[in-house]
Amino acid sequence: MTDTPRHDDTSDDPTGDAGAGGGPAGDHTRLATYLRDHDALVTSASALAERAVRQNIGTPYEAPLRTILEDIGHDHVALRSVMAVSGVEPSPVRTTASRLGELVGRLKFNGSFRGYSPSSRVLEIEGLAMLTQGRLGLWQSIASVYGPTALPDDVDVDGLQARGTDQLERLRALHVEAAGEAFADASPAVG
What does the DSSP 8-state code read for residue 5? Predict the structure, then answer.
C-alpha cells in the first residue's frame, strides 16, 4: 500500500467534526467525517436488515433478506478496513444516533397496532434499497479518493460496487413482490 491518505483526528470532539473547515486539516477531517457518517449508515442498515429478517422468519422473504444482511456485514467490514488504514476511528456518537434513529423508525402507523404489517415490509425494503444506494456512492467515492493501490488487499471496490448493484436489483424485485402483496386489495380512487 502506498499513498494512503491519513485522516487522523486528534481533536477532543467525539463526533470527529472539529476542524471541518477548509485547508489541509479541514480536508482530511471532511473525509474522516464522511467515512464516519457512512459507518453510522451501515450500522443502521444492518439493524434494519436484522429486524426485517426477524419479522420474516418462515416467509419467502427470509432467505433473500438474510443474504442482504450478510452482504451488509461484509460491506461494514470493508468500510472499517478503509477507516483503519486511513486512521479514522468510528464515532460512538454517530453509531448510537444511527441506532436510535432506526429504533424511532419503528414507531410508525402501519394500520396494525400489534404484529407485523405487510406495509411495514414494503417500507423496510425501501429503506434497505435507499441505504444500499448510499453505499454504492460510498464505494464510488472511495475509489476516486484512494485509487487502486492505496486500499487494503481485502477491499475490492469493484467487487463491492458489483455486489451493491446486485443487492439493489434483488431489493427492487423484493419490493415489487412485497408491494403487490401488501396492496393487492387496494382499489385506487379514480377521479
Answer: P
Distance of CA 104 to the CA centre of its chain: 17
Q: Which residues contact 159 (CB under 8 A, 6 or more apart)?
A: none
> What structural domains and CATH numbers belong to the chain?
23-182 (1.20.1260.10)
Q: Which of 26-35, 44-53, 71-80, 158-167 has the lowest mean pLDDT?
A: 26-35
Q: How far is 135 from 165, CA to CA, in rounded Å?
A: 10
Which residues does 2 contact at the CB level (< 8 Å), separation at least 6?
149, 150
Segment holding 138, helix H or strand E:
helix 118-146
Q: Which three cell numbers stand for residue 92?
A: 460512538
Please classify residue 190 by burial: count the beta carbons closer than 10 Å to its beta carbon, then call 0-12 exposed, 13-18 middle and 19+ buried.
Answer: exposed
- Rounded Cα distance between 56 and 153, Å, is 36
Side chain identity at 64, as an amino acid letter? P
pTM of the model: 0.78
